[in-house]
Write a structure and sequence with these properties.
154 residues; 6 helices; 0% strand; globular; DUF7704 domain-containing protein
């Protein structure tokens, strides 16, 4: 049994890798639709395609770390904190791009969102909040690596 609480396991082993992989596929296969969803103030042109290829690479890296690396180091809270801390940096940048495109008034007012805006904002901010909570130690065991039998390794 993992020392990482189940809600974090569900978010970082399943939800986030799925969203990151789907986002990467959309960035590669339909970047115009991704622009419409996440940056509605910007018009897509084919000249932007290389930027979306870069974005897809980043999202696939995060999907890999969530789905593979965090599973391999399932009981090492320190590694989880480092990986999720790096992902926070990316999420803050992506969230800032949403705010830049939508404006604070729109971003902070769910009554103004349509289904696409709501999904984009919630699927970004939700995992970001979970990462911040994990890194801050909310509901997380102390910084120690446990052996197979649950004993603290020195």
């Amino acid at each position: 049994m993992s020392t990482i609480p189940l809600p974090y396991l569900l978010v970082f082993h399943y939800v986030e890798p799925l969203f990151a992989t789907l986002g990467a596929l959309q960035a590669l296969l339909s970047p115009g639709a991704l622009v419409h969803m996440s940056l509605p103030s910007i018009s897509y042109t084919p000249a932007l395609r290389p930027l979306f290829t870069q974005l897809a690479g980043s999202w696939l890296m995060f999907a890999f770390h969530d789905a593979v690396t965090l599973r391999i180091y399932r009981d090492d809270v320190r590694i989880w904190r480092h990986i999720l801390g790096a992902a926070i940096l990316s999420d803050v940048g992506y969230t800032a791009s949403l705010v830049q495109s939508m404006g604070w008034e729109w971003f902070l007012n769910p009554l103004r969102w349509d289904l696409v805006n709501g999904f984009t904002i919630l699927s970004t901010v939700g995992p970001l909040v979970a990462k911040v909570l994990f890194v801050l130690g909310v509901g997380v065991p102390g910084d120690r690596k446990l052996g197979k039998k649950g004993r603290k390794k020195e």
